[in-house]
Amino acid sequence: MTKINIRSPFYLRYDEPALPSVALDCDLINLQNMSIDQFGNVTLPDLDYGTIISYTSSDVDFANGKFDTVVSATPRTVTFTISIPVNFSNAGDETIDCDVPFTQPAFVCTGGVTTSGSIPSQSLDTGGDSVEIDLTSYFTAGTDPIEGYNITNSYTNIVSTSLSNETLKIFSINRAGSATIFVEAYDSNEATCNATQSISITVSDAITYDCNYAFFVGGSIANDGTITKPTANGTVGDIKLTEGGTPITSYSANNTGSAREVTLFFDITVPSGYGYTNAGATVECSKTFTQSSTTLEQFTCRVAGLTGQAVALNGTIKYGTVNKGTFSTTTPISPLSFPTVTTDTERTVTFYITPPASGYANSGGSDISCDVTMIQPAPEPPAIGTETWYISQTNYDFLTRAQLESAEYTYTLTSVGFSYTDYYATVLDTLEGYLEKNGTSAGINTARTEIKLNDANILNNIGSGIYDTTSNIPNFLSVIFDDVYSASRINPTGGLYFRVNKAREGSSAKTATYVQANYTPFYFIKVESNFRISEVWNVDLVNRTFTKLA
Amino acid sequence: MAFKTVDLNIYIYEGTEGSYTSTDLKYNIQKSIIGEDTEVVFEISELVRDYIDQTFNNDYLSKCVWVTTIATLIDDEGVVFTYGSPVSTNYLAVDGYGYFEDEINPTLIGNALMTANSIYLPEDTTGVLPIYAAGVGKVTIDSVDTEITDNGNTNQKLQYVTIPANSSTIQVYDTDDSTLLRTITVYNVCEPKYTPFKVTFVNKYGVYQDLYFFKKSTETFNVTDETFKRNTVTTNSSVN
């Protein structure tokens, strides 16, 4: 009994229960519901553990699994041999005998079922051979019809039986020998007699033992070459390096620095009494072992065992896991991410793995690099819209100077400044820089190319795609986003800004003043390389104000 | 077949250990293994605490309850394990607590249920010594023995031994009556000017302990003052 102090937490912990380590005895087996009827037939008992292999009795009138009839009630003792499951501590004994007493009632019946001839002896081969017997031919009903049959089989290690209506099916098991089973027919009248027929069965060896029956378990080769034999179905004898070779007792030490596969051949003496035609013969079977190295293994990508790495739709890279070692905290993966794609694309990412602190030749050394090739999936193409918009094909990598700065491009404000003299502002194609440089007379191309979007409200088109009037990606966008020009696109996401208008604007380029005065409202949208809209801006071209709407 | 779920019945009752009935079933909780865990953990103190009712009228009653947990272990196919299940455990719950250094699931000492080895009483005043009856054989106060008996009932588990007025030494012995566990010194304080006031509180061992306030005290102690609303709604719930 434990005292709980309930003003502090008290935790109950439960984990998987341990298998019982007790020895199996007859009390645990708990044989019950065994009976012997007036004809001497034994009804097998139920049991909680193990399996009944056979049963017997020391009584002189017991033979082939049944007793003789008696004129007065007679105490009997039946001894059951029961297999011990592996979970019990005495499983090594394999079987245990348990006695069950029962009083056989006197034979008092009259009339009833009688036998008709005798059931012929049966011959089976080991390994699941079977025979079917129609029982109606061997029993004759009395006044009442035959209601069913009881099967008495005390040779369950040699044959098994099944009964389907009036058809008895007998199966062999992998053990040769002779068995006698009994079939008892009964009617619905308890006062009448049952009739019993015996069936003699001979099971002969029919299986030739080969390596498929060896069933090797365990065994090993230590790094110094010490061999531990596996266990098998049969006695494992000599060890050989080659089939038919000279017996050996050990193998060479593994000084290669890495584990290696070693195949050894073992002589197996075929066990007797299990239905093998070649019992006692020697069969040579091989088993392959992994021999570890006597020197420390190099920590490699194979040892690291990278799994679960992936590239997401948006191009971010999932680290996944490593089986051994850890992802480097000093060297990042390369590249850090990918732009989105329109078709499934193969990507290779270099991961850097820090070896475990010990246990490998390069423990404590430098990070190792491991390339992992993955497929970056392309998102499903966006829905095709029907709302007509017009777009100007002139595009900008950035709209504002702040965007340019946050992208950390190499330009120096102190030496160059962000003014009309700023060479980089022009090259980097920033709208704010372009307007600052050219003032209100800056030329602005009109939005005249018809496109289809999903919605008349520009703010509702975030995430949707851009199509032309034939439901295809507009050709000019395909050209702009073609890989040939990818190097000139410097926005970190790979996208570009375009001006769009719901109404079609006039022909030829206009000044910023004119566009602002005559084509308002218009918007700037950011189109990503997957042709989806990701941003919407409101821009005053004259006052050079930029407002992100979405 | 892997361990997956625990179906936990918690019985809380008074009387003798294991004497619970179906009406004493206060909680039925089901919880499964989470993620890669290998065990299922329940915290039961909060549940049990609702069933120790602390009321005090200078009567020094034994405030404790029996807790019997019966855990049925179930595998990932919903089948109850045929071995190692159910797991039945009895606990005696008291309204105590442990400090950080007492570590997880503190059980604390099991004899004289107070931390200090000194008691300050006003002169000519009797006192009480709280003890855990199952862990004490006898208490000797100034050579006078008091045998401690425990019939297993919750009303005898926590006992209060009367300290006669003007006693000086208390010795607490193990259940063999010979192993000395604690020696507690009684200081009888003369306070002719002020009226000492007795404060009785539930100490860390879950028993009532007296403390007199004179004009000056050298005792150092910590007090937890907490109020809560008892919640003993009878209902069924399932937690996964």
Task: Explain this structure.
The complex is a heterodimer of chains A (550) and B (240). With 550 residues, chain A is mainly β. Chain A has five domains: 26-104, no CATH class; 114-204, Immunoglobulin-like (Sandwich); 211-291, no CATH class; 307-376, no CATH class; 387-548, no CATH class. Chain A is 7% helix and 36% strand. Chain A has seven helices and 39 strands. Chain A has a six-stranded antiparallel beta sheet with strand order 34-32-35-37-38-39, with no helix packed on it. The longest helix of chain A has 8 residues, at 431-438. The radius of gyration of chain A is 44 Å and the shape is elongated. Residues 412-421 of chain A have low confidence and may be disordered. By secondary structure, chain B is mainly beta. Chain B has two domains: 3-95, no CATH class; 118-213, Immunoglobulin-like (Sandwich), CATH 2.60.40. Chain B has helices at residues 45-49, 154-157; strands at residues 3-13, 25-32, 39-43, 64-75, 87-94, 118-122, 127-132, 138-141, 144-147, 158-163, 169-173, 180-189, 197-202, 208-213. Chain B starts with a strand and ends in a 27-residue tail after the last strand. Classes of the chains: A mainly beta (550), B mainly beta (240). The interface between A and B is medium-sized, with 20 and 48 residues.
Main sheet attributes: strand count, strand direction, barrel closure of chain B: 5 strands, mixed
Provide the helix percentage of chain B.
under 10%
Widest beta sheet: strand line-up of chain A: 34-32-35-37-38-39
Q: Per the principal axes of the C-alpha atoms, what is the gross shape of chain B? A: elongated
Count the domains of chain A: 5
How many helices of chain A? The count is 7
The count of helical stretches of chain B stands at 2
- Based on the coordinates given, report the CATH architecture of the largest domain in chain B: Sandwich
Shape of chain A: elongated
Distance between the termini of chain A: 66 Å
Strand order of the largest sheet of chain B: 6-12-11-8-9
Largest contact between chains:
A-B, 20 and 48 residues
